[in-house]
Amino acid sequence: MVGSIKDKVAIIGTGVTKFGEIWEKDQEDLLVEAVYEAINEANVDLKRDVEAIWVGTQYHFTGMSGAIFSDSLKVFGKPITRVENFCASGMDAVRNAAYAVASGMYDIVIACGVEKILDYGGRGLPLAGGELHPVMGWSSAPAMFALVANRAFKVWGWTKEDLARVSVKNHYNGARHPKAHFRREITIETALRAPMIAYPLGLYDCCAMSDGAAAVVLTRPEIAKKYVGDNYAVIKALGMAVETLGPWYRPSESFLSFPANVKAAEAAYKEAGIEDPRKELDFGIVHDCFTITELINYQDMKLCKPGEAASLIREGVTAIDGDFPINPDGGLKCFGHPIGATGCRMTVELTRQVLGRAEGLQVKNAEVGFAHNLGGAYTVATVLIVGRR
Amino acid sequence: MVDILAYGAYIPLWRISRDEIARGAGVPSAGGEKAVASWDEDSLSMAVEAGVDCLGEQLNPKEIDALYFASTTSPFKEKHASSIIASALDLRRDVVTIDFAGTTKAGTTALKAAADAVKAGSAKKVLVVAGECMVLTPSTDFEQVCGDAAAAILVGKEDGIAEISDFVSTIEPIPGPWRRSTDTLPQRFESKLDLRYGFIKSTVNTMQSLLKKYNLSIKDFSKLVFNAPDPRGYLEVMRSIGADVKQLQDPLFTNVGITGAAHSLLLLVAALENAKADEKILCAGYGDGCDAFYVETKKKVEELKGTRRATTVYVKSKRMLATYEEYLDFRKLRERAQPEYPRASVVKYWRDEKMVLPFYGMKCKSCGSITYPIGRCCVVCGAKDNYEEVKIARRGKVYTFTFDYLCGPGSAVGEYAALNPAIRVVADMEDGCRLFLELTDCKPTPEEVYIDMPIELTFRLMNERTNFRFYSWRGRPVRS
User: Is this prediction's pTM over 0.90?
Assistant: First the structure.
């Protein structure tokens, strides 16, 4: 690798809407709300200062092309790119924006994401239309991850209770976050009693269908001071890997680990110079679209050895008061997962945590942490490490 | 000389007891049970299964010159089922395909046409498949009498298991049930006339013409094989023609039902399964007339025994539907949440025909991996354009699984999926190929579906997206 993003990009503004079933607002409302919160925090003027924009959306009914941003904010004539990389669309927008700033091409840019899923109606995420083959295997999102849960149950002896513990932990955290979709604690019994969605994943093993938007303003550290003084965080690393949308057709696929995760994490840790993430990082935000995903992510992010993730959740290591808090905000479990917005929301949460101003539970002494965004059939993984300046 | 070279059959896994039909429909029970095609089966898909059984692992589908399909219930009014069946069975492209339709005699008529083609020298081997999957008016006699099944017979010029005689054929245009092109359910006027002046008279007269032609007596036959509209009809014909009831090939009424255009061929297969060398079997097929012929078995008939599942295995391999309502849902005979499907491209299906009908994958010449689907570059090693197309192994075992209550079989969404979860499995096939399959013929419970469970491929209707009928292969528990 020739370059490194480490310490070259500053996050000076963050904005995030309330996530949930936001029937009364559309994508324009949500995007305006998140972007204005971010630019106000960054003390930048949208028309005067912001030079380029990356906006993440997955679904065509949320918005296609850069016009989803220009038409929402009524800011015309700037370079705007729509980013689609499945559920990792949001963080990939951040990633592209970060490289643009680091390259010196632009000084101030916005990365944002939005999704308006509830408007589409129906149960579960809308299936993609055109790309679906009429007869070749496809499945709902929970089923993709349930394949992994059943394998992990068989090989490592994990149980539905272990999955429920992830849900209980995240609901505890989410109950204390004002922007979360679900703000109620649950018990293991509640999770175990829930209707089946994709065996063995029940309702409480799955993140909700939600709407929302989030945005960040990026610049270079030397410029950041001018706008926000010392009130900014810096990107320490960005790792990304794309594997396959058909993991079930690949003979090597173990269904016990997501190869995209492993490669994205390795790249990010290498860039940040991290050898032992459990010791050198303070907390993490992982893509818990399903409870099983959170556990597999612990392992792929090298927080423990393969098979040991269930022990981490049983022993409370990843609870808010544990040795290595994971998803202090309540995660996708409580925020839901407006696809294009999630990676940006994670970036906002990560930044606010390291700056000591989390809206929900604040991780103690959080100086540097990671956020991990996963998309597709474990197809796309992005890992972002952010620290205090 | 035209010989039968091999046979095969297919009887769907599911059965319903006629007592349960009687309970649900509020009518008297005829006793016994009948075979019911699964919700994802039809006459076309079952004919493929019978063809797979007939060809076995030994016979080369590329040597077949024609495929004839017989059914009164082809899923298409316009489109040849036989063409799809030929592709699914991996026949050559330059074969003749014909759909024989419109009456229950279609099965034997297709066999006659096949024998004629071989005799005339226009084809060396012809595969005849007959399948029937009937949608019947609830609470009628038909509903209890008729069952679903398929049969396959391969005929050719070489020395086989039985020699086929010439045929005698007659017409009888008025009696019997009908469906106008606008009807979905069968109509009839007077079943007593249909039986007496249609079925019995026509079958007996045509059989007698055959006996006369070959100067044979009814006593010369070990078995009589024919299709009757109901069980009573069998005994009437046996009596009228002067045969002993012991000569009657078990009509499979008590455990399968009468299977329309497939029935005579299904019973002929059953007779051949149990025959020794040098037996004569008298056969007839009735429907708007009658075909009569006989076969004389040869030594090889005993060699083929046990190499095909045919009726021996498929009659025994069964599972009962618990309720009449389940049966109605299989045939979409009651109002219920129906599957909603996203649009799908027939263009893709056309382009990928070899991957989805005969089910080929790729074998990489660089790393040796067998993978699915076929792509320019190997998914294992990335080698570009360096592969051969290979047929994927038909058996394997489950690597992992789930029951998908959000996305039902064939990507059905909506409330239907919550009622009918797709059983999705990642499977390791015997050749090392990884597949992502939907399982059918089993229930979504961890007792029935589990890691390392043995499975085999089965040809099914996958969905009806975009108002097309998309067929391909699902997995099922191994039937034995």
Answer: yes
Please tell me the distance in Å from A152's CA to the nearest CA on chain B.
10
Angle at which helices A291-300 and A141-156 cross, to 10°: 60
Helix (H) or strand (E) holding A198: strand A196-198
CB B443 within 8 A of CB B453: no
Joined together, the tokens standing for residue A380 give 């796309």
Shared domain for B126 and B208, answered yes or no, is yes
State residue A133's pLDDT score: 86
pLDDT tens-digit profile of A161-181? 999 999 999 999 999 999 999
Cα B200 from chain centre: 26
Report cis status (omega within 30 of 0) of the bond before A277.
no
**What are the φ and ψ backbone dihedral angles of B85, each rounded to 5 degrees?**
-60, -45
> Known catalytic residues of A?
87, 337
Instruction: Verify that A90 and A155 share a domain, yes or no.
Output: no
CA distance A22 to B288: 65
Examine the domain organization and report whether A62 and A42 are in the same domain. yes
Q: Please check whether residues A221 and A278 belong to one and the same domain.
A: no
Helix axes B81-88, B43-55, angle to 10 degrees: 40
Greatest CA span in chain A, whole angstroms?
Answer: 58
Tell me: do A298 and A324 sit in the same domain: yes
Assess contact for B473 and B410: CB atoms under 8 A: no
Nearest CA in chain B to A124: B406
Those of residues 145-164 in A touching chain B at CB distance below 8 A are 146-151, 154
The closest of B116, B42, B107 to B79, measured between CA atoms, is B42
Q: What is the CA radius of gyration of chain A?
A: 19
User: Smallest Cβ distance to B406: which of A142, A252, A253?
Assistant: A142
Last residue of a domain, one of B297, B330, B363: B330
- Vertex A276: Cα angle to A274 and A279 (nearest 5): 105
* Length of chain B measured in residues: 480
Rounded CA separation A113/A16 (Å): 10
Q: B337 in a domain, yes or no? A: no
- The total number of structural domains in chain A stands at 2
Query: Does ipTM top 0.90?
Result: yes
Please indicate, yes or no, whether residues B272 and B381 belong to a single structural domain of this protein.
Answer: no
Residue A15 tokens read as: 């904005």
